[in-house]
Amino acid sequence: MGKINKTLQNIIAGPDNGLDIRNIKYLPRWAVFLIDIGLVTISTVLTIFILLDLSPFQYTLLSYFDKAVLIVGTHIVFFYFFKTYSGIIRYSSNIDALKLLLATISSFIFLLTVNYVTFFSIGEKIFLVGGLLINLWISFSLLFLFRLGVKQVYEYFKIIQKNESLIKTVILGIDENAISIAGALDIEHPKRFKIVGFLTQNSHKRLRILDKPVLQHNEQIHKEVASLGAEAIIFSENTFSSEEKFKLVEECLEHNIAVYNAPLVSSWDDSQPIAQKVKTLQIEDLLEREPIQLEVQNKIDQLTNRTILVTGAAGSIGSEIVRQVAEYNPKKLVILDQAETPLHNLQLEIESKFPDLNFKVIVCDVGNQKRLELMFQNQDIDVVYHAAAYKHVPLMESNPHEAIFVNIHGTKNLADLAVKYQVGHFVMVSTDKAVNPSNVMGASKRAAEMYVQSLYHEQIKRKTSETKFITTRFGNVLGSNGSVVPLFKKQIEKGGPVTITHPDIIRYFMTIPEACQLVLEAGAMGNGGEIFVFDMGEPVKIMDLAIKMIKLAGYQPNKHIKVRITGLRPGEKLYEELLNDECKTLPTHHKKIMIGQEVVRDYEMVNDKIIKIINSANKLKNDKVVAKLKDLIPEFKSNNSSYERLDNIPELKRN
Fold it and tell me: What pLDDT is recorded for position 576?
């Protein structure tokens, strides 16, 4: 059989052969039309021979030639009427078969009508009725088999010419979406998958769909996949919870079964081949939790017809806040960042997606107090979402003065101006690294938290007009700039190695939309002075994350892609926390959102020490900067850093 395949490949699809099927995109309409006429002619001739063999009696009103011309001519008219030749044969469907059936039956009815009109007019028939029935059956069979044959031959030789082995795959699910995916993948060229069956949670005995078996899957899904001879599985339905999907994928990866994800067919467009829409399951699909259901009305009241400022708007968090705020029809949206190119890209996106939105783009460093004040004077801002920050731990450990300029001084500038210009709400985006900080970045964010919280309580103390300062604190964000998931993806695409700082390191994860929902919700529900923390579920071991990503990409860890341990980076710790040891939590109306009750420090003390920290940063004295940070934040203990020596210096000497 293999030799026959190779011979056929050389004859029909050889690179130097004019008959190479790659040169034939589709049969032209006129060619299909002529072939159909030829097939009806053959059917008519066969019918005549059958009738001559079966019965000596024949009607002689017309000659055999005239009868054949009348039959073929009638079919031509109905072929044209039903446009049976207009489809691309390799994509023939039930609709095309129905058109053929209608055309041949219509021809039969017309010829039968002519037959009896002639009989009642002159008392003699043209055709034997049995002959017309035989012709109907033969002509439809030939026309249908021609299309079926071309379709199968085309598919066969497309596989040969690609010289590829298809991925034997099962579809998980038997709903309409699953069946549509299977059907689309079966007829697509070039093929990528060979669908060998379906798996479902329901019990179906001897059920087949698209002539493929349907099996019930139980707790050991890999056994059903193996029984169908498959090497991959496609998730096609969204009925699984995140936990169920995680468990299924984990089992598949353990048994070297590739896992793919297919979007809803209703969301497909024609911009790329169907097989390319079925993609390898991404780690984000597994780490995603059930969507958070939040109140809508309170955000409408907070954002609609208000002037909103978003700082750090070009970043991954800031840009998503901008997109979500834009949905609430603000009076004006002010978008601020110092990163020119990402800000320009965001501007183009907003212009395209929200053509009626009133927005202003400002290029500005939050450390530039004069520029910020001019903006507050001109914009009459109601709500500030402060997402501008330096966030990369190793970089800030090497450049602590820069962390001070942006994370502390920038926050102080904005907070002071928010109070001066009577902004209603100021929502600050913080991080879990601010809890018991072990690095400069986390400490700078904790200092910023302390400042805005103490400033809020100072307003209450002085009984001045209140700006409600609210802090949101969460962990790592999937897909954000510089996060571990995009880094691992790039390393895997390059063939490795995947680098991990420590085999036991763990982190909390959430998605960008999730994080930004929390920010908006906090701004709407907060009364001022709170630090909102989010129930982020179970932490993820980064080593497990890397291994799953390698397997999802179709490789074996430490065989195809190496995993390399590089050692903890300066300031990095094995695990992050959302609350420190002294902090208690209060529930809110949402079970996944809590209020962390941090100890509120005296504003005068915090402000005085922060001014000293900023002054040290201006002198570019790294040790002095870090020492003063440690003085403000006693729980700041450096880890794996050159600043660890400062933890042993008495407080008086540090100052």
Answer: 63
- d(CA 121, CA 123) in angstroms, rounded, equals 6
**Which of 245, 391, 433, 445 does the annotation list as catalytic?**
433
Please tell me the predicted confidence (pLDDT) of residue 166: 78
Characterise 210 by phi-psi region: left (phi > 0), alpha (psi -120 to 50), beta (else).
left
Positive or negative, the CA dihedral 396, 620, 365, 437 is: positive
Q: Is the pLDDT of residue 95 over 80?
A: no
Domain ranges of the chain: 2-161, 167-281, 297-632
Alpha carbon distance 578, 594 (integer Å) = 11
**pLDDT number for residue 409:** 97
CATH number for the domain formed by residue range(s) 297-632 = 3.40.50.720
Q: What is the pLDDT of residue 286?
A: 62
Nearest CA-CA partner of 229 in 213, 247, 208: 213
pLDDT tens per residue, range 610-642: 999 999 999 988 899 999 999 999 989 988 888
pLDDT in tens, 237-283: 566 666 777 778 878 888 888 888 776 655 455 555 554 556 566 66
Core vs surface per residue 104-114: b (16+ CB within 10 A) or e: bebbbeebeee
Active site residue 433: yes
- Look up residue 353 and give its two tokens: 């997606």
Max Cα distance, the chain (Å): 127
Residue 249 phi/psi, 5° resolution?
-65, -40
**Average pLDDT, stretch 350-370?**
94
CATH number for the segment(s) 167-281: 3.40.50.720
Per CATH, 167-281 and 297-632 having the same topology is answered: yes
Residue 523: pLDDT above 70? yes
User: In sequence order, what E strands does 529-620 have?
Assistant: 531-534, 540-541, 563-565, 584-587, 593-597
- End-to-end Cα distance, the chain: 86
Positive or negative torsion for Cα 313, 423, 433, 406? positive
Three-state SS letters, 618-643: HCCCHHHHHHHHHHHCCCCCCCCCHH
